[in-house]
Design brief:
The complex is a heterodimer of chains A (82) and B (202). With 82 residues, chain A is mainly alpha-helical. In chain A, 77% of the residues lie in helices and 0% in strands. Chain B has 202 residues and is mainly alpha-helical. The chains are: A mainly alpha (82), B mainly alpha (202).
């Protein structure tokens, strides 16, 4: 990997999170335009983040919800201020 | 500081809880249980552990709510308690120490195949089976992440906390958040891409 690619590889997340200053963003985007490998790298990273976020939803079993409420209600009633 | 609508509702519910309203307590649970439970599940991997985390989080939250400072966001405070509960649970289970993820191991070498095949998430109900298989791959990949990287990844990329908020919740520096997040993402990209290509759960 070339030095320029390595430098951008290390700050890829900061770029995706909008945490780099304007000058650094311009520099990294200029590099992406000229380097298909790094462009593919940033795209796949973006897709990974998006995919994990979209697949994150979990179902809470109704019984677990009920147990949580019943435990808290019991503590509330016992001590009033827990 | 301008209060958001969410903060304003939270602060009203907190005041009502302090005044003795059980209904306010239940409304607070209703607002945050899904996220706390999801966080517990992502961190611990088992329903029972996630339920323990949710119970411990809300129990401690209501126990100490009288000390809650108005300038704090309830959501951030709850996640701070939940993260502490996850760390404590892990310590109790005497898990192996975290292994470091090295950046070097992900750097593509000249001539190497740097292509990552990351699938799209389909919202089409007819893709239910495909989605469930893909979710297995993603969850398993997240679970192979070392605990300290998983904490940062879950807070930043799943829960959407900022770098600063994550640093505050975990009591670490913003630089550590950035470093761990970057490595966690590289690790997940590699794991998900490989598992998807091979059709196996990592």
């Amino acid at each position: 990997m070339r030095d320029e690619c390595k430098k951008d590889y290390e700050r890829l997340s900061e770029y995706l999170d909008g945490e780099l200053d304007d000058e650094a963003c311009r520099e990294i985007e200029r590099h992406f335009r000229q380097c298909p490998e790094c462009r593919e790298c940033v795209d796949s990273m973006r897709k990974t983040i998006q995919l994990c976020k979209e697949a994150a939803t979990e179902e809470i079993p109704i019984r677990a919800r009920e147990r949580l409420r019943s435990m808290l209600r019991e503590c509330f009633s016992r001590t009033h201020d827990l | 500081m301008i209060e958001t609508a969410t903060e304003s509702i939270d602060h009203r519910l907190i005041s009502e809880f302090k005044a003795g309203s059980m209904e306010a307590m239940e409304k607070i649970v209703e607002r945050y249980e899904q996220r706390i439970f999801t966080f517990g599940l992502k961190m611990c991997g088992h329903l029972q552990d996630a339920e323990d985390i949710a119970q411990e989080t809300f129990l401690n939250a209501f126990r100490y709510l009288k000390d809650f400072r108005e300038e704090t966001q309830l959501k951030n405070w709850l996640f701070k308690i939940a993260a502490t509960a996850c760390i404590r649970k892990r310590r109790k289970k005497k898990c192996e120490p975290d292994h470091e993820i090295s950046l070097e191991s992900f750097i593509p070498h000249d001539g190497g195949d740097a292509k990552y095949d990351i699938p799209d998430w389909s919202e089409d109900p007819s893709d239910h089976l495909l989605r469930s298989e893909l979710k297995k791959i993603i969850d398993a990949a997240i679970h192979t992440l070392s605990h300290k990287y998983r904490l940062v990844f879950t807070l930043r990329d799943i829960e959407g906390f900022s770098t600063e908020e994550t640093a505050d919740i975990l009591g670490i520096s913003t630089q550590s958040v950035k470093t761990r997040l970057h490595r966690a993402r590289l690790f997940l990209r590699e794991k998900i891409s490989t598992a998807y290509k091979e059709g196996t759960v990592p």
